[in-house]
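Lecture notes, continued. The same structure-token format from the folding unit now serves as the input rather than the output. Read the line below as a description of shape only.
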């Protein structure tokens, strides 16, 4: 097996989505083809230290009673000293030892300091190939305000929104209250740069706004308030094109909500009741083709590479793009792998495809 590719699986991180990143890494560790790849698991602690982690998928299983996390074991992984080297080293027990050369990095990081272009910039600096979107697309996808601005500029329908910072709200609350009220109800109040529905609230009247903003501002000092769109929640997975080809788009999936206000963190990751993920979604051929066209257009509009999940509302007037997620979850109940599996791909083949694109 001397010709196996050596890859760093990078996960954890400083964001509130640390545990989801660990669970996604557990899914990849359990599925990746060990005959083709040698894996070096590198965890990022909640404080931002790079540590050499256990190659043990079971340790990162998504358990609602005890969410997985990267523990600081005292090791410190050292990235290559320059773009002339591919050598990874580790400080372990006070000594530096080599982990050998690596071929690429697979960063499975969600949220700030990982999904937002920061890690991608680090890897660009040291010249390591990596899976997924580059610096600009990652930064755009992380910031919901700029995602919407770019999509709208590309002629893609998005939900009406108002962006407000904590400083703007403190200085002129009455002005912003009026602007937000003009959106109508219900509304969704979201941190601009967080994911996994962390800090998101559904607001049905003006007297709920202050509490919802407080929750969102606890995550980010920049918040989006969107008009609630009435429609089916559908999404599809995107893979970058091969050999200069067009982006590839999966069959659509649908989030059917029956007993919750919206698709929140517990429903996404902890298997909470009231949500059913259906893939493929029951849509007619013309709708599927149009959704796939818009998804590919959105991916190209942000300068996407590698992968993304594009989330939509299907209304009586057509499709409205909700978000473009540049590092969607790979957990066992996540929609991104489910959509590709329903499209005829296996989980290991999906990993192979992403690695091939990175190289």
């Amino acid at each position: 097996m001397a010709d196996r590719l050596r890859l760093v699986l990078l996960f954890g991180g400083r964001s509130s989505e640390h545990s989801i990143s660990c669970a996604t890494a557990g899914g990849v560790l359990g599925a990746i083809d060990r005959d083709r790849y040698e894996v070096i698991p590198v965890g990022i602690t909640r404080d931002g230290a790079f540590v050499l982690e256990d190659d043990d998928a079971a340790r990162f299983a998504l358990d609602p009673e005890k969410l997985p996390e990267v523990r600081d074991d005292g090791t410190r992984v050292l990235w290559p000293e320059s773009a002339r080297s591919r050598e990874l080293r580790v400080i372990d027990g006070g000594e530096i030892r080599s982990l050998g050369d690596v071929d690429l990095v697979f960063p499975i990081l969600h949220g700030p300091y990982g999904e937002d272009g920061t890690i991608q910039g680090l890897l660009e600096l040291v010249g390591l190939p990596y899976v997924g979107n580059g610096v600009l697309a990652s930064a755009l996808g992380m910031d919901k305000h700029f995602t919407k601005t770019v999509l709208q500029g590309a002629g893609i329908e998005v939900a009406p929104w108002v962006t407000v910072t904590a400083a703007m709200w403190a200085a002129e609350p009455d002005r912003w209250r009026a602007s937000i009220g003009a959106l109508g109800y219900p509304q969704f109040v979201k941190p601009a740069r967080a994911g996994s529905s962390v800090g998101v609230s559904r607001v049905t009247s003006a007297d709920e706004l202050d509490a919802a903003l407080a929750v969102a501002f606890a995550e980010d000092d920049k918040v989006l308030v969107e008009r609630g769109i009435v429609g089916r929640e559908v999404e599809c997975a995107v893979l970058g094109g091969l050999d200069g080809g067009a982006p590839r788009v999966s069959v659509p999936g649908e989030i059917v909500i029956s007993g919750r206000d919206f698709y929140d963190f517990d429903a996404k990751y902890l298997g909470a009741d009231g949500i059913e993920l259906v893939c493929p979604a029951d849509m007619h051929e013309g709708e599927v083709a149009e959704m796939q066209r818009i998804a590919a257009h959105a991916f190209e509009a942000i300068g996407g590479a590698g992968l993304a999940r594009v989330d939509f509302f299907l209304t009586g007037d057509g499709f409205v793009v909700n978000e473009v997620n540049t590092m969607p979850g790979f957990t066992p109940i996540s929609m991104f792998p489910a959509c590709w599996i329903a499209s005829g791909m296996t989980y290991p083949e999906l990993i192979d495809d992403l690695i091939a694109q990175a190289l």
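Point for the exam: The longest strand covers residues 307-315.
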